[in-house]
């Protein structure tokens, strides 16, 4: 075999390996997983025991290139299967307005519940580092069955108990006013308070007991991660490697925070060692 032929074969093998690798990265970006978490609360009313909340985050409809609408469709299908009591969408619904109506069509397919609520993230406001897009007008969001919470709270009676859902706008870029949320909290003992915030950093502005749980996203869990056995979590995040809140549960000075990997991707249509997810929380009475 000549040297030229060997080089051609090596180049072909490398090209095939690269194509397979990229195909897997695209595949994993749409390989949605559902994870379930229990939130055990002392003194939880029996009326709220077993109450379910589905968190969807970082949908990024309109991000290019991406297959995000396909993954969003899978997330909505899975939410329909679960039929939760409450649906929480924690920011970065879009990247630009190019697929907004398609997003609304998917949101209209969400199952009936006691409420579907959303807060905005930085992409929704047009605050991005690598690309440029205007802020999005979400005037049609309510017609899709999702209520936008902008520094406000909504109380939902559940039997003799109350679940209060609060939402704060993007606090990192100066849109959110957490003091307005704090002033609206229902602090009665039978009330369970949830806070939706795109950024988990808002927990640093809360006192222990203000809310039972902060639901956030933003980091995508790293989106593309590299294995690193000696590192906490066993992975190095290529997206936001210095993020204080990476993914999963955190206790921030007595405030419980959960960071979701989210559904979509941004900037690149890839994920590695970081499947997209929807999260199901089940409220349980602590022993």
Q: What's the short story on this structure?
A:
The chain is α/β, with parallel strands linked by helices and 287 residues long.
Account of the protein in words:
The chain is an alpha/beta fold and 287 residues long. The chain has one domain (31-285): Purple Acid Phosphatase, chain A, domain 2. 20% of the residues lie in helices and 26% in strands. The protein contains 4 helices and 14 strands. The strands form 3 sheets. A 6-stranded mixed β-sheet has the order 1-14-2-3-4-5, covered by helices on one side. The protein has a 6-stranded mixed β-sheet with strand order 6-7-8-9-13-12. Helix 2 (68-82) runs parallel beside helix 3. It starts with a helix and ends with a strand. 41% of the residues are buried. The mean pLDDT is 93.
Number of strands: 14
Tell me about the biggest sheet?
Answer: 6 strands, mixed
Overall pLDDT? 93
Q: Which blocks of ≥5 consecutive residues have pLDDT under 50?
A: none
Q: What sequence of helices (H) and strands (E) makes up the elements?
A: HEEHEHEEEEHEEEEEEE
What is the annotated CATH architecture? 4-Layer Sandwich
Separation of the first and last Cα atoms? 73 Å
What is the overall shape? globular
Strand order of the largest sheet: 1-14-2-3-4-5
The count of domains is 1
Give the % helix: 10-25%
Rg over alpha carbons: 20 Å
Q: What is the level 1 CATH name? A: Alpha Beta
CATH topology: Purple Acid Phosphatase, chain A, domain 2
Strand fraction: 25-35%
Structural class: alpha/beta
């Amino acid at each position: 075999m000549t040297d030229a032929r060997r080089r051609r074969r090596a180049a072909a093998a490398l090209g095939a390996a690269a194509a397979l690798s990229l195909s897997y990265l695209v595949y994993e970006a749409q390989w949605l997983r559902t994870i379930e978490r229990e939130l055990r609360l002392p003194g939880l009313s029996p009326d709220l025991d077993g109450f379910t909340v589905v968190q969807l985050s970082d949908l990024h409809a309109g991000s290019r290139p991406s297959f995000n609408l396909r993954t969003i469709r899978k997330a909505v299908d899975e939410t329909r299967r679960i039929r939760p009591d409450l649906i929480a969408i924690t920011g970065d619904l879009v990247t630009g307005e190019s697929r907004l109506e398609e997003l609304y069509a998917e949101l209209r397919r969400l199952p009936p519940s006691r409420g579907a609520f959303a807060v905005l993230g930085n992409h929704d406001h047009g605050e991005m580092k690598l690309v440029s897009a205007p802020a999005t007008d979400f005037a049609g969001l309510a017609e899709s069955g999702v209520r936008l919470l902008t520094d406000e709270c909504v109380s939902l009676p559940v039997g003799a108990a109350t679940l209060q859902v609060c939402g704060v706008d993007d606090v990192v870029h100066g849109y959110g006013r957490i003091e307005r949320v704090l002033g609206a909290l229902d602090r009665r003992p039978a009330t369970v308070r949830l806070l939706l915030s795109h950024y988990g950093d808002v927990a640093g502005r809360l006192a222990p007991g203000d809310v039972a749980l902060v639901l956030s996203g933003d980091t995508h869990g790293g989106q593309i991660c590299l294995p690193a056995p000696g590192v906490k979590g066993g992975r190095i995040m290529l997206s936001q490697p210095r993020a204080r809140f990476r993914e999963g549960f955190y206790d921030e000075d007595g405030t419980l925070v959960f960071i979701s990997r989210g559904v979509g991707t941004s900037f690149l249509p890839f994920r590695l060692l970081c499947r997209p997810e929807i999260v199901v929380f089940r409220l349980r009475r602590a022993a």
